[in-house]
Amino acid sequence: MQKNFLDKKLLASALMLALLGAGCATEVKTNQGDMQKITGLKTPESVVQANNGKIYVSEINEFGKDDDGQITVIEDGKQRVFATGLDDPKGLAIIGQTLYVADKTKILKIDVNGNVKVFVPASEFPVTPLFLNDLEADPQGNLYVSDSGDLFNTNKGGAVYKINSQGKVQLLINDTQDARIKAPNGLLADNTGHVLIILDFASGVLYSLNTQTNKLTDIAEGFGGGDGVVHHSNGTMYVSDWKNGKVFSVNTKGDVAVLKSGYQSAADIAITKNEKYIMVPDMKAGELDFVPVQ
Question: Is a pLDDT exceeding 50 seen at residue 6?
């Protein structure tokens, strides 16, 4: 059942913050006419597009097997392997010309030539991560990463961290501080980094975290296995439901609607730079879909 946001005032605030963080849409250099579905991917989890139009997809391949993960780049509809030797790569974020990857218990960085280095090892986190998942960047060059914890068993160990440009890790919130943090997944930062939208995989609830006061506010619910969250510059937010294979739209009035359903597992979504499409990795199907939003 789709539900409206619980508090329209909170919704408006969250959407305005998302809008502020979006800035103006950036036209990409590559041709983005009718985007064609990409098939044959190896357990695709996350996707992001660079300003030059290139689309990067993290491919886990076999869960739990080290060194078989990779990053694929898609340019003008053609795909090629960009980086190999990863473990279980998930969330992606781009700062400048560097691609950052949440890979199991560490954060990697990959340069324009596909060279992979460890940016933040597991040992730099306050506690050893269990399941690093989504990755988000703010305009100040900080990264935010969700640790979904033991999400397939106890729903314990969930946390969200902030990482500065030097790789210093700061805990923002975890399940010990607030029991509502069960298996945090999708993240969305505003343009100041003072507000972080958090989508929980276990509960399907969307939260707003004030990173200055550590206040966590329920914004919306009903998203099943909440995975990815993105925004359009017009204020609309989009949320993916991995368990039920759906992508939702949430407009500025708080109306929640199914944008598209029928996926085997709609993972960590992203929006193209020209804001014409939502990119949806269908993990179990091994596909990357492009859903028109204009």
Answer: no
- What is the predicted pLDDT for the residue at 134? 98
- Cα(105)–Cα(154) distance, integer angstroms: 18
Domain containing residue 113? 8-25+38-292
Residue 1 located in a structural domain: no
254 with 269: CB under 8 angstroms? no
**pLDDT of 102 over the 70 cut:** yes
CA distances from 251 to 12, 16, 178, 241, 248 (A): 10, 11, 28, 17, 10
- Within 8 A by CB and 6+ apart from 24, the residues are 233
73 near 79, Cβ under 8 Å?
yes
Question: Is 176:199 a contact under the CB 8 Å cutoff?
Answer: no
The DSSP H or E segment spanning 11 is: helix 8-22
Q: Who's near 161: CB < 8 A, 6+ residues apart?
A: 125, 144, 145, 147, 169, 170, 171, 172
Rounded to 5 degrees, what are φ and ψ at 243?
A: -65, -40
Question: Is 98 among the domain residues?
Answer: yes
What total number of domains does the chain contain? 1
Predicted local distance difference test score (pLDDT) of residue 5: 37
Q: What is the pLDDT of residue 74?
A: 97
